[in-house]
Amino acid sequence: MLVLTRRAGESLVIGDAVVVRVLEVRGDVVRVGIEAPRDVQVHRQEVYDAVRDANVAAAAASEDAITALQGAVRKRQQ
Q: For residue 28, what pLDDT is reported?
């Protein structure tokens, strides 16, 4: 992990297209602005984790869903 010290108004660049700017520092809270191309997804960690968990849950097939699908396939084959 790279650790940097920045003050309000200062920024850092990631790659060629992402700029992270420190907008404000108040006590232990830091506000940052992120400039990135539209095709680059930017999420808070807790939102990213929730989306990832929801995608994993949606991709997992339940026994009921498998049974229903098997029944539908059998009906089509008859």
A: 92
